[in-house]
Specification:
single chain, 310 residues, 2 domains, 13 helices
Length: 310
């Protein structure tokens, strides 16, 4: 695994820890953070749904964990389930990844990736062009004279560098809070988790028999299910003086996966992501036997336990 990619992940997951929440266990070093590390048979324990929600949003649930969901919460869950089962477009709630991304990944596949073809695709996105040229001229990448042409910048960055910059650029529209107060608190955390998760999926994919670029795309987009749920929640049932019930928050966690699954099916970006979406509509991520889903679950667990410890 390229040292640059490993170093990036280490900086996110090892060098930027926050103080763990009360009662949280100390996080072990990330599996897959070195070339010799194996994925391992025993998966780490995932964050509990309530803990995840509270750390994402900064809100606290009701102290009584066994309390039933309120009538308005039950109505919200039923309405959202009906929407997800209807097959209606979710574009108003869940942003679609830029169409250039799957095409960019497609031309980077194989033993001889076409960086020149990648440069031609990147030209469709002026912001991405600017990000790539800026990164190629950064102190870390600087070799010789500054580059001014996109093709030169892409060749200097290489496949791994291009993935990093493209992923960071995609974060902007995918995790834009659009002035939604509830989502605003969670969006930056979701974006950071997604970028780290995408790189970890990319690193561990070969060990799991999964295509690395399919894994990267799944890790990058998976958190938009939470974007959709929090956006609907902020509009239809915004936080009030009384906190959400714990049972309701558990339901929201499952709805976020179904929201992503339905969205991935509607996007039709590639067969792997469509299949993942179909699987997540039927069963939770941790219960799916799909290899891509298993890899995604392991990566999500590792990343959340480190980066959500706040």
């Amino acid at each position: 695994m390229p040292p640059w990619l490993i170093g990036t992940l280490r900086r996110w997951l090892m060098h930027e820890p926050a103080a763990p929440a009360t009662g949280a266990s100390r996080v072990a070093p990330l599996a897959g953070a070195t070339d010799d590390a194996a994925a391992g048979d025993e998966a780490p324990q995932p964050s509990a749904p309530i803990e995840r929600f509270e750390r994402l949003t900064g809100l606290r649930c009701e102290a009584e964990a066994a309390a039933d969901a309120r009538p308005d919460e039950q109505a919200f869950v039923e309405a959202l389930q009906t929407l997800l089962e209807s097959g209606q477009s979710l574009a108003a709630w869940v942003p679609r990844p830029p169409s250039v991304l799957p095409r960019l990944l497609a031309c980077l596949r194989g033993e001889q990736p076409s960086l020149r073809q990648a440069a031609a695709l990147v030209r469709e996105d002026p912001q991405l062009v600017a990000d790539i040229v800026r990164a190629a001229n950064s102190a870390r990448m600087q070799h010789g004279e500054p580059v001014t042409e996109l093709e030169q910048a892409v060749l200097r960055l290489g496949v791994d560098g291009l993935l990093r910059i493209a992923g960071a650029s995609v974060m902007r529209p995918l995790f834009d809070a659009r002035r939604d107060a509830l989502l605003a608190a969670a969006a930056p955390k979701l974006a950071r988790l997604a970028l780290a998760k995408s790189l970890l999926c990319y690193m561990q994919a070969p060990r799991c028999g999964v295509d690395a670029f399919d894994a990267y795309l799944a890790g990058l987009t998976h958190n938009v299910g939470w974007v959709g749920v929090l956006r609907v929640l902020g509009l239809r049932l915004p936080p009030a003086a009384r906190p959400y019930s714990c049972r309701f928050v558990v339901e929201l966690s499952r709805l976020s996966e179904r929201m992503y699954g339905a969205s991935a099916e509607q996007w039709q970006l590639n067969d792997a992501l469509t299949g993942l979406g179909r699987a997540l509509r039927k069963s939770p991520l941790e219960q799916s036997t799909l290899p891509l889903a298993r890899l995604l679950w392991r990566a999500e667990t590792e990343v959340e336990r480190k980066l959500l410890a706040a």
